[in-house]
Amino acid sequence: MADQLTFAQENRERIQAVENSFGPLSKSLSQLNRVLIGEGRLIKQSRRGPQRKDFFLFNDVLVYGSIILHGRWHKKQKIIPLEDIQLQDLEDGLRMRNQWLIRTPRKSFYVAAESYEEKQAWMEHIEDCQNRLLQSGGRIPTSKFAITWIPDQASAICMRCSDRFTLTIRRHHCRKCGFVVCDACSKKRAVIKHIHPTKRLRVCDICQPNILKMEAEAQEINRLRGDSTGKSGSEEDDLEEFSEEDTEEDQVEDHDTSRWMNCEMGSRSTYVYLKPEHVRH
Question: Can you say whether the dihedral through the CA atoms of 241, 244, 247, 250 is positive or negative?
């Protein structure tokens, strides 16, 4: 009993420390029955190149953010419910080691750990917490995930019209299919609800009619069911977790193999697993 009380106090203090590191404008992380399971530093691949991020695994969410002031403070807090996560293991490449894919409805991205053991610990603990959460009831796993973009470097031409990319003909990505396309082939905009329920995102000329068709079919189904909105409450509740910058530029990160391993982990990369025997069911 004394050990449990001690752990509960230590857990509250750890969670408060993580919350404080994101500054006063961040979302509160202190919730009833929330437990900080582990923390560590991973390399997250983005369109701007590989970046070190601090990740914090709780028994119900995965939190990460950018590192500032030598790792003592963080910014750009991101909170992902564990039921919205799907992990995909990846083999080591020539330049990439200990990597895996984290897929979510609004954003899918590649991360890498410093060692194979840390990669396995992260994946096993995320999946274990996810399974416990779903088995406890009240949470429904997500079935729709953001598409993985084809890397910029994978195509020298637009994958729709075959025009060659130049300094003036720039690369863009369709948020529906992930193809590398030119601006002329991706002027259309459409709502992709599992990415953002209201924001109109860039899509290519091929995908846009298909999206409109699916929207019309969904509206007809909702009409027959007597639901004129077609929205669920959770869609609106989750909007604050990702900014417009995330949905537009960072929705799914490019997998740039040429720059991946040039980013060093730093001194806080080791994954710390905090007293798993106290994880609450």
Answer: negative
Cα distance between residue 96 and residue 112, in whole Å:
8
Is the pTM higher than 0.85? The answer reads no
Joined together, the tokens standing for residue 131 give: 């399974």
Query: Which value, in Å, is the radius of gyration of the alpha carbons in the chain?
Result: 20
CA 92 to chain CA centroid, Å, is: 21
CA distance linking residue 228 with residue 102, whole number of Å: 34
Question: Which residue carries 């530093």 as its tokens?
Answer: 41
pLDDT digits (tens, 9 = 90+) for 48-71: 668 899 999 999 999 999 998 766
**pLDDT, tens digit (0-9, with 9 covering 90-100), for 69-120:** 766 788 889 999 999 999 999 998 777 799 999 999 988 888 999 999 999 9
Q: Are 204 and 155 in contact (CB under 8 A)?
A: no
Contact assessment for residue 51 and residue 253, using Cβ atoms and an 8 Å cutoff: no
Question: Three-state DSSP class for 41?
Answer: strand
Instruction: Specify the pairing of strand 73-81 against strand 180-181.
Output: unpaired
Cα 262 to Cα 162: distance, rounded to the nearest angstrom: 32
CA distance 136 to 114: 33
* Cα gap 118→137, rounded to integer Å: 29
